[in-house]
Amino acid sequence: MRLLLHLPAILAGIIEQWVDVQIRLHQLPAETLLQAVTAAGIDARIITFEGQLARLRTIVERCALTEVVPALAWLDQHRPSQAQAAICHGDFHPLNILADNGKPTGVIDWPNVVIAEPAMDVASAIANISAVPINLPWALRVAAQAASGAALRRYERAYGARRPLDDEAVRYYQVFRAVAQLVPVAAARAAGRAGSGAFHSATGAGNLIALIKRLSGVSVRL
């Protein structure tokens, strides 16, 4: 009961720190990262949004994932006008923030890093968290999904209060992140592999497909 009474304040504190660290990340100069990647002998295009979109197209074509093509076509047709690019984590949520005595000390888990507008990072967090399967009994799962949805709406409002967000851009990048999560699932199935990770489950893939349909109107089948 004591935990339940303090839960709203705890949640508010987590979201406040989540947004604060994310905005600090988005204020870092993207050019510095691009230069560092190039200096390391890596093609910097792989960490740009254009590069990530091109990579998805290549996988879809190479693996003949025709069922995903309509979603890629939607992404091509609905590109938002580009805002100023920033360093985007790609999977930014509180569990990836390190802290010591309540003070942030670092951010971990960078495989999805990309130079894109900040709306992409916010949208990616929303898409990843809202679509990830919750393995609980039905009643608890419904309650957890409701709580997660409320927290994500509060997170988006908190970010938008400090740095303007374009609603259409957030919607677009949610679809992009869902497609980006779904393509490896489809590729694994096409190769006859089970794959690993939450979204390789029937529920996880189904959640991604439902999210794409709800936000874009595009039907995708695996």
Describe the structure.
With 222 residues, this protein is mainly alpha-helical. It starts with a helix and ends in a 6-residue tail after the last helix. A hairpin with a 2-residue loop joins strand 2 (97-100) and strand 3. 29% of the residues are buried. Helices cover 61% and strands 7% of the residues. Helix 1 (2-26) crosses helix 6 (138-162) and helix 7 runs antiparallel to helix 8. The model has no long low-confidence stretch (mean pLDDT 94). The longest helix is centred in the first third of the chain and has 25 residues, at 2-26. The strands form two sheets. The protein has a two-stranded antiparallel ribbon. It has a two-stranded antiparallel sheet with strand order 2-3. The chain has helices at 2-26, 30-39, 49-62, 69-77, 118-131, 138-162, 167-190, 202-216; strands at 86-88, 97-100, 103-107, 114-116.
Structure summary:
The chain has 222 residues and is mainly α.
Tell me the layout of helices and strands.
Blueprint lengths: L1 H25 L3 H10 L9 H14 L6 H9 L8 E3 L8 E4 L2 E5 L6 E3 L1 H14 L6 H25 L4 H24 L11 H15 L6
Antiparallel strand pairs: 1-4, 2-3
The value of Rg in angstroms is 18 Å
And the CATH topology? Answer: Aminoglycoside 3'-phosphotransferase, Chain: A, domain 2
Q: What does the main sheet amount to?
A: 2 strands, antiparallel
Count of separate DSSP helical elements: 8
CATH C-level class: Alpha Beta
Described by the principal axes of the CA atoms, the overall outline is globular
**What is the tally of beta strands?**
4
CATH superfamily descriptor: Aminoglycoside phosphotransferase (APH), C-terminal lobe
**Total domains, how many?**
1
Mean pLDDT: 94
Structural class based on helices, strands and sheet pairing: mainly alpha
Helicity level: 55-70%
Q: Secondary-structure element sequence?
A: HHHHEEEEHHHH
Low-pLDDT stretches are none
Report strand %: 5-15%
Main β-sheet, spatial strand arrangement: 1-4
How far the N terminus sits from the C terminus, by CA atoms, comes to 44 Å
CATH architecture: Alpha-Beta Complex
